[in-house]
Amino acid sequence: MTKWEYFITPLPLHTPGQVLNMHGEEGWELVQIASAPNGTGSVAYMKREKNQ
């Protein structure tokens, strides 16, 4: 059975692609983007397979 770890990160309005690419290089896969609770941009929900 595959085990996952999850990560939530803010996405700045001016560089969202740069942030996503940086985490993608670390093995994180984007699951969803949602509005930040405080209305100052977005947050990205990411996952990657957990090393066992």
Structure explained in plain terms:
With 52 residues, the protein is of the alpha+beta class. 19% of the residues lie in helices and 44% in strands. It is built from one helix and three strands. It has one helix at residues 16-25; strands spanning 4-11, 29-35, 42-49. A three-stranded antiparallel beta sheet has the order 1-3-2, covered by helices on one side. The longest helix is centred in the middle third of the chain and has 10 residues, at 16-25. The mean pLDDT is 92.
The tally of beta strands, per DSSP, is 3
Overall average pLDDT:
92
Poorly predicted spans: none
Whole-number radius of gyration? 12 Å
SS class: alpha+beta
Distance between the termini: 11 Å
Main β-sheet, in a few words?
A: 3 strands, antiparallel
Helix content: 10-25%
Write down the secondary-structure element order. Answer: EHEE
Task: Give the assembly state of these chains.
Answer: single chain
Relevant terms:
alpha+beta, single chain, flat, 52 residues, 3-stranded antiparallel beta sheet, DUF4177 domain-containing protein, 1 helix, YjzH-like
In short:
This protein has 52 residues and is α+β, with helices and mostly antiparallel strands. The protein has 1 helix and 3 strands; from the N terminus they run E-H-E-E.
Sequence-ordered SSE layout with sheet pairings:
Blueprint: E1 4-11, H1 16-25, E2 29-35, E3 42-49
